[in-house]
Fe2OG dioxygenase domain-containing protein (Dovyalis caffra), 330 residues
Amino acid sequence: MSTNDGTQKVRENGNGVELPPMQRLIPFENKEHNPESYEDMQLDYSPLLFSSLERYLPPNMLSLPRDRKVHFLSDILTRYSPQGERTRVQKHRKYRQQILSSYEPRHKEVYTMNAANFFVPSFLKAISENTEESFRSILVEPTPGVYTFEVFQPKFCEMLIDEVESMERWVHDRRFHIICPNTMNKYGVVLDDFGLETMLHKLMNDYICPMSRVFFPEVGGLTLDSHHGFVVEYGVNRDTELGFHVDDSEVTLNVCLGEKFYGGDLFFRGVRCDKHVNTESQSEEVFDYAHVPGRAVLHRGRHRHGARATISGNRVNLVIWCRSYCIDQD
Ligand SMILES: [Fe+2]
């Protein structure tokens, strides 16, 4: 007999000895079910893993509260998942808690979405109209699949750079071992680790998704649901250039925040799947882009690209890798 949380009710054998409850997932994915997000919960495993497994829950569990589903799935994961993954997630959570408990933000206003102060009016108008026509009125598509448009006010760029410098001073003063933005960039900060996760999630949901739905529906642009948000720094005593690569994202938003620099152009070389990521480019795929402070570049994560050397000065860019759980599973 099943209980309403999908577990098998504890049974008794003829001798009255209780047998352990059965906790099993169903053998086939329920593709019709839209899983919940677990990003805001304190979990021992990646929140995405819970979203992923939710489609394998017994049907009578799908409408239960999240904490019941977490309890059920955690029991299963503890039995089967490698200790290493649990340790990694626990360490990262501790790392974030250490930062959040003692880092004092310099500009509290960047931690809460304030659209009127963050974005330029033309961008806000296009988003509020929310049509392909309104988006196309503010952007250019210099090569297929790469969209550039003015997005941030200069004041917001300055404030975010100042906040990042404050984070770096805090790290330096405490000789804190900081996690790098990604495997390729050594200089910069993961903003999500410093308390900006909620603001960046809103930025993705309310301001990137409307555009990605129109321009990148085939790669998950309709269903972006998680992100990795960071700032990278190039120039003197920083990274110089970035090799040819694809991003760990479905859709990437890359915005130059400043400051004064020479060089550092982005070069694009066409979209490729995993199998053909190193194949040659066609001449029509070759495109170079010169960064302009406050201006965004929006492209598929699989659109191959790199950054040329920043020859002088310092360049700071905000990058948001937007991901879709649905695409990850395909
Ligand atoms: Fe990249």
Observations:
- The CA atoms of residues 138 and 149 lie 6 Å apart.
- The chain has two domains: 1-81, 108-329.
- The pocket of fe (ii) ion is lined by residues 245, 247, 305 (CB under 6 Å).
